[in-house]
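re: ur question from earlier - yeah i can do the single chain one, its not a big deal. heres the input i used so u can compare w yours
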Amino acid sequence: MKLEVLTKNENKKVENFIIKGIRDLINYKNLEPGDKLPSERMLSEKFEVSRNNVREAIQKLEFYGLLKSRPQSGTFVANIGVTAMNGMIEDIIRLDEPDFKSLVETRILLELKTVKLAALRRTEEDLQKMEEALLAYKQKVLNGEDAVQEDLLFHLAIAKASGNSTMNTFMLIITPEIITKFEKYHVCDSDLSQKGIADHQAIFDAIKNEDPQLAKQKMKDHFKELYVYCYNIE
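and the output i got, formated as tokens:
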């Protein structure tokens, strides 16, 4: 079997092709809520794609609530009308990959909320996780090494400490994209890493002292370069 490495754009085209195929199948067979779809193997053969591609397309439709998978039973049409389903699938297919500036803006908005909640809800275990990430970041910076991942791990620890699972999930979704594109867009140059140590410590101290307003202000101070990048605000 010939193995091919698909680019991100090619993967998206294949995924959209499968999603359209599932939509057409539902329409052609007049499947109703609760009706079962063909197996992944059968869909793979029908669309002439890999089972992994089919699985990823199904997972995406599950995420948007259009399909439901039951272990050992299969995949079923969710409780939604055909007209609404067709409209939602069109919207899903039209969705663009978020540009980097949008990711950064989303991160700012999320973290100004999570840091306040973390100051109100953090546990001793949360503080320990933040402190470990803070130390890892500091060691990397002082050794002159790239510390982007450690930086974001500290922020993820704050998101987890917020106690809001939805916000935490959003942070987990956007973080990999931010990590891969930070250096490409030169948002935060290496000379700012030293300042990052003091910024992180100030944020941590405010959370530890259960001061949500100060925690938010210290996070805003930390995001100065991101504000410049997104909004041209000095």
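Residues 121 and 162 are 6 Å apart (CA to CA). not sure if urs matches, ping me
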